[in-house]
Structure formats: structure tokens, C-alpha cells
TrEMBL record:
It is found in: Cytoplasm. Catalyzes the conversion of 3-deoxy-D-arabino-heptulosonate 7-phosphate (DAHP) to dehydroquinate (DHQ). Belongs to the sugar phosphate cyclases superfamily. Dehydroquinate synthase family. It catalyses: 7-phospho-2-dehydro-3-deoxy-D-arabino-heptonate = 3-dehydroquinate + phosphate. This is 3-dehydroquinate synthase. It is an enzyme of class 4 (lyase). SUPFAM superfamilies: Dehydroquinate synthase-like. Zn(2+) binds at E185, H248, H265. GO terms for biological process: amino acid biosynthetic process; aromatic amino acid family biosynthetic process; chorismate biosynthetic process. Binds 1 divalent metal cation per subunit. Can use either Co(2+) or Zn(2+). Keywords: Amino-acid biosynthesis, Aromatic amino acid biosynthesis, Cobalt, Cytoplasm, Lyase, Metal-binding, NAD, Nucleotide-binding, Zinc. It comes from Oleiagrimonas soli. NAD(+) binds at residues 72-77, 106-110, 130-131, 143, 152, 170-173. GO terms for cellular component: cytoplasm.
Amino acid sequence: MNAPHTLHVGLGDRSYPILIGPGLLDAGADWRTHIHGRHVLVVSNEMIAPLYLSRVMAQLGGLHADALVLPDGEAYKTLDQIARVLEALATLGASRDACVIALGGGVIGDMAGFAAACWMRGIDFLQMPTTLLAMVDSSVGGKTGVNLPAGKNLVGAFHQPCAVVADTDTLDTLPDREYRAGLAEVVKYGALGDADFLTWLEARTEALNRRDTAAVTEAIARCCAHKAAIVARDETERGERALLNLGHTFGHALETECGYGTLLHGEAVAIGMCQAAALSARLGMAEAADGERLARLLQALHLPVAPPQGLDAEALLAHMRLDKKNLGGRLRLILWRGIGRAEIVADVDESDVRAVLETAA
Ligand SMILES: NC(=O)c1ccc[n+]([C@@H]2O[C@H](COP(=O)([O-])OP(=O)(O)OC[C@H]3O[C@@H](n4cnc5c(N)ncnc54)[C@H](O)[C@@H]3O)[C@@H](O)[C@H]2O)c1
Ligand SMILES: O=C(O)C(=O)C[C@@H](O)[C@H](O)[C@H](O)COP(=O)(O)O
Ligand SMILES: [Zn+2]
């Protein structure tokens, strides 16, 4: 096995490493040191467990370890499934030094992390992301939670993992559509704050489309480094961290309105970033050409750049009114001044948002 890339999320006594590389699932020696107690619950789903669960369990010899296999999909990112994780921890007899391992994509990571935040008011959890999206984004930074019918991630907690172990070999089994959804969050990092990275991506669309290992690994490491730096400066989204939400106010509304799992999170973010760019141009903050450049990159990565036809702009706006960034009942969005220059914009006028939503309808 090649030595993994190791990055660091600097959060004082809650700092943790991010390991990125091939073969890590079978390299318990690299990550077991982050498990301190005797009880371990591995949480996975019915798609991932047959592929990888036995290999992770094989690394947990000598511990009191159990596994819980949840149903697959965004539609199951619910409080009901959290109750199942908590019941499994009770059955295991998990004490305060227990550790939850999240083996899966962002859905499993968000849920396992939230259950770990709740059990006995907070126990360790270790992220083992198996999707590109989870490797570049959701496994890092400690946002955990579930959806409600009213909106995405409306219930949750900030709860940092004790380590992130990203075995890049697991991407070999990831379906094409899921891989591309992960690329949307990769593009997001360039769009929000790193124009050089966006240019780097533009030069590598062909390599990324054929999943060239070197290009994909470098992209994961660069995204994690970017996110780790932002999270270290603003762990609980008092300011700068909100920039990681570029495209998400529109995107979450689309996911909720279409029905969870219909539009993948990354697809919704791709469309949402284009809508944020369109709104920025409408408000005179940015040139339309920047939005066109972003859309060209997303299209080169086979991602959608416009919402499905026939959606109701008022229904989308209603979802946007429940976004967690809003303050004082006013919309607060992440817009931009151009590639790499995202900004938090308060008091956005609903009529401008409606105009962007109606353009696409
Ligand atoms: N906490 C955060 O900071 C954060 C950041 C971004 C996204 N998210 C959340 O993450 C979720 C999306 O995550 P996702 O895109 O990973 O989706 P996902 O977790 O639903 O996984 C995508 C699909 O791929 C399957 N899968 C996972 N790994 C596989 C593998 N190696 N081989 C074959 N199949 C595999 C899954 O079973 C699922 O069907 C959303 O709920 C989103 O809100 C959270
Ligand atoms: O880590 C963050 O901060 C992000 O915003 C990353 C997003 O990609 C992610 O989808 C996150 O879950 C969205 O957060 P939310 O607070 O809008 O639910
Ligand atoms: Zn996201």
C-alpha cells in the first residue's frame, strides 16, 4: 500500500487527522489508535455493507464490535433511523468511551455522526467515507444530522469525528452518477474561494471523467485541505464557514421539492451554484461570463446546470425561507463576485430570487 496523504483539522483538543489513500480499510494499524474504548458500532447501509463491512470488522479484533446495516438512500436520512442507531448502541451496552464508525457516503456519515453526538450526550465517531462526495466534503467538519419533510438537515449537531479514513479504493465500486455528484462539491471549492483550483479542474476534466487515480486523489486532498482550513477558523458557521454553502440554499430547496433522493445532493448543488451565479449577475455583483464559465465546467463533468422543468417557484421559495442561514426572517444567501470570490449576502430581496427561480421554471 502507498503511504496515505495525511491532513490535519486543527481544532485544539478536538483536532483530528484525515487519511487519504488506497487500502486503508484493511490497514487498521493506521486508524485503530483513534478508537479508545472497548465498544464499537459500525454503521453502514445495505448497499455498502456487502462490499466492505467484513473487511472493517476484521480490523476490530479484540474489541466488542457490532454492526448496524440501515436502508440505503437520502429518503432514509431520518429521525427514525437515528432511533435505530441509538437502540443498537443500547444493545451493544456502549459506554461513554464507545466509538461509532460511519462506513458509507454522506447519508451514513451525517446519521452516524448525529447518533454519536446524541448517545450519552456525545461519544467518539470515526468517518470512513466511501463516496467521492463524502471524501471531499461530508466526512470533514462535523456537520451531522437528518432531514425533515420540511427541509434538508433541519435537525442536527456539530460533532467532530475523531478521524477521517478515506480509502480511495472504495471509489472503484461507486456508480457513475454518484461519482459525478461528488465532483459538484469538488467544483464548489474552486467556485467559492480558489480560482486556481477551478482552473486546475478545467484542465483535468478528461482525467477526472475517466477517474484517473492521481487526479482524483489530488482533488480529494485539495478539497479536504480547503475545508479543514475553513473549519479550523470557523467551526460552527458563525461567519466564513457559510461559504461552503455556495449553491446549497437553491440546491436544498430543489432536493426537498423534488423528493429526497430524486435529485442527488451533488446534482442539486451543481444547479444551485448556477442559480447563485445568475442571482449574483442579476444583482450586479458579478459578470454573467463567470456563471457561464462555471456552467461549462460542470457540463464538462456531465453535471446538470438547470433545474428539472415544471417546478413551482413559490414552493421552492418556501423551502428557502427555512434555510438555516437566514436571519430575522430575511433570506441570507451565498453569492459571488466571480470565480473564487463567494460572499455572504444578507437581506436578499425575494423578488430577485423569485425571478431567478422563474427563469428556470
Ligand atoms: N455533513 C456535511 O458537511 C455534508 C457535506 C456534503 C453533503 N452532505 C450530505 O451528504 C449526503 C450525500 O452524500 P453522498 O453523495 O455520499 O450520498 P449517499 O450517502 O446517499 O451515497 C450515494 C450512494 O452510493 C452508495 N455507495 C456509497 N459508497 C459506495 C461505494 N463505495 N460503492 C458503491 N456504492 C456506494 C450509497 O449506498 C448510495 O446509494 C446528503 O445527505 C448531503 O446532505 C453532508
Ligand atoms: O460543511 C459545511 O459547512 C457545508 O456547508 C458543506 C455542505 O456541502 C453540506 O451539504 C452541508 O451539509 C450543508 O450544510 P447545511 O448547514 O446547509 O445543512
Ligand atoms: Zn453539500
